[in-house]
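Hello forum,

I keep getting stuck at the same step: I have a sequence, I want structure tokens, and every attempt I make locally crashes halfway through. Rather than fight my setup again tonight, could one of you with a working pipeline run this one for me? It's a single chain of 178 residues.
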Amino acid sequence: MLAFALAMDAVAVSLAEGLRLRRPGWRDALLIAAMFGLFQALMPVLGWALAFKFADAVSAATPWIAFGMLALIGAHMIKESFEDDDHGATANVSLRTITPLAIATSIDAAAVGVTFGVLEVDVAPAVTVIGVVTAVLSLAAVFIGARVGERLGRWATLVGGVILVAIGLRILLAHLLG
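Reply #2:
Ran it on my machine without issues. Output:
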């Protein structure tokens, strides 16, 4: 259940990427899925490793970092949606473009790692399940988003950007109000 919950931000961003790409190849879809799965698995390990040293300092800054990264990328997509060229049909994915998204959507998983440390959870199997579930769901989401994106055209890029900004706001508001 935890793996599914942690994967939801990555799935939403994968949908947004599929909307933007409209016709993703397997290379792009697998790169998105692999990066999201990798970072969802690595962040709890990082949180677990730093559980007792830096937990307070890191937990205060992470929602702001995630919000900033997602808002900037989302705003860029929104801006792209108003441009005339049909860039979405030929857009691709690179490590440079997907890594910030993978980091931003997995920051909350570091807090789970802190919990792993406190509860003395066997970390290796837990993060393996988290990574695999995230990767599989993200892969499916890219292709689902692409199907919707083909029908929506450049509105899909606008919707994708709005989704990213909304996820960033949700992360920030949950921190500020929670």
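The helical segments are 2-21, 26-49, 55-81, 95-119, 123-152, 154-177. If your local run keeps crashing, start a new thread with the error log.
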